[in-house]
Amino acid sequence: MLDRIVEFSELLRRNGIRVSLPENMDAARALELIGVADQKQFKSALRAALIKRSIDAKTFDELFDLYFLGQGGTARDLEQKLMRQLGMSPEEFQRMLERMQKFLDGLDGELSRLTRALLSGDMGEVERLLREAAEAEAKESRSSLRALLLAQGIAGRIGLDGVREEIENLRHLLARIGADPQTIEKMSEYAERRFRDLLELVRDLAQRETRKKDPARAERERLDHLSQKSFAYYSEDDIRKMNEVVIQLARRFKNLLSLRRRHARRGRLDVSATFRKNLQYGGVPFRIQLDRRKKEKPQVVVLCDISDSVLNASRFMLQFVYSIQDLYSKVRSFVFVSDIGEVTRLFEENEIQHAVEMALRGDVIDVYSHSNFGRAFELFYREHFAAVTSKTTFLIIGDGRNNYNRANDWVLKEIRRKAKQLIWLNPESRMTWGYGDSEMDRYGAYCHVVEECRSIAQLYKIIDRIVA
Q1: In this structure, are residues 174 and 183 in contact, taking their beta carbons and an 8 Å threshold?
Q2: pTM score, two decimals?
């Protein structure tokens, strides 16, 4: 156990936590007193001995689970899932395992250790074999920080293809030792599902090993994956994680924009003024003149379709715009399906995420009506057109599907005439624009910018146009 504590301390150091030799010795002495039988006490003792700052507690907890708990939790979950898939109670499942063990005894020497452990339900042995393969692969492979490559390496070392072949031949082996057809069918189904569990264990182990070596990279990969994922396929968990993405993007975007504006305040070379100033020197530019025109913060008006088909895109856009609202001189936001309602005050009086939820859940307008862009545009023109000025960047988020209602595209023509710029972000694939009840061809003609915006990555590429 002392070796494992030293190794775990090294893992903590690699992840930015300072652990000294005396603290290692404290941990070892603590474990001599309490032992390792009680997992909670074991973890608490290690944390007390090795962690000095509360900020490191979260990293410690994650690495402890990765290092000491192994795949036991995953294996137990797979066991429960397998019982449900086979429609068996725990007692029936246990009886089937016993029958399988009896068959396996009759096939002595014809199956590999891994296949035998997998089919007999000895998940401890399966995990041990997988971990040995993972450690060997990590030592020899420079690409072990990538979960996919590590998983492929582990699969090669445990002879996954051979296990697959043995599973496929199991039906013949069972028939040879005299099993009846019904039993063969049941056992074959069980073996197939066990093989899928093995694939999942390999993937899970590769991800765990990758996270142990570089949790920051795993986090980056997770966020990268989320940023590439279409809004239409976001799960509830993705939406929760999206908050982290919004904060990161907003912080990065603020930094970039602050730098750009700082450079702008310094001024650009004014060629005409420089030549005039240097006429006395024969046109040689000894004295440089800079253009120091004052840059004003833009105003933003956001018009969000909050029908189900584009809800996540609107959610993200509202959250993002208000996360960087200090970059604008003024922000006004409206939501619509058929009716239109202003939600600016919600963001002035509530925390951003709470305000977004209030804006989208139907507190302001009826969200169960059918989309009617034309009606919403006309209502905006009648009631809120004064919000548009020559400094306004007008942003629309919507799929442009108008349910064959009157398009009222003249409203966009008026907005374009008055606003600084008109931007439309469409969460639908560009390939579908203009088909069916889509009015994008008509609406897009009046916009300065029309972009497909189905993911965070796409949105990030065009977001700087809003505040440029």
Answers
A1: yes
A2: 0.54
